[in-house]
Model the fold of this input.
Amino acid sequence: MHGLAAHAARPHVPGMYSRSSEPVRFERDCDVVLVPQGEQVTLPAGSIGYITQALGGSYTVFVEGNLFRVAGKDADAIGKEPPEPLELSAGATDEDVEKLVWKQLRTCFDPEIPINVVDLGLVYEATVRAREDGLRDVEIKMTLTAPACGMGDILVDDVRSKLEMIPTVHEADVELVFDPPWNRTMMSEAARLETGML
Done:
């Protein structure tokens, strides 16, 4: 768990599960991540649950009292389509790649909060560097809503893998930083509206 003080600072999102949540059945064994602990586990074929969040190409599902995150590449396990491959026009500039970097960052979500990491104010810096071989490296500095968040490694892996899907990106280096510490004022106005924090 995040610890009571840390958890209290996180945005409160009402109703993780509701009757409108979409029921799902796992069609095959699937590697998933337990939320918020961040442990990797396998849900067996035939597991039944509900989708509580379907954002950015990944899914948060409620199964037998626990929340699990299903990666986009495993969407077929719950009868969904995996995300389309990204395209970049020939001759794209570093600026074009940087726009795509920010677009991809907006597909990364904290599994417990239905707001992307950019609007949550978690991304402090995104830098695209051209390499001599024509490829690019991306450097990201980001933080978490709570330093002890068990989902930190999962979120970092999600950001890294989404950025490395961008054509011409050789490597994405994602560094977690806690200075300055995250606070609610870093959220976009839309994110504060959505969580009732205005």
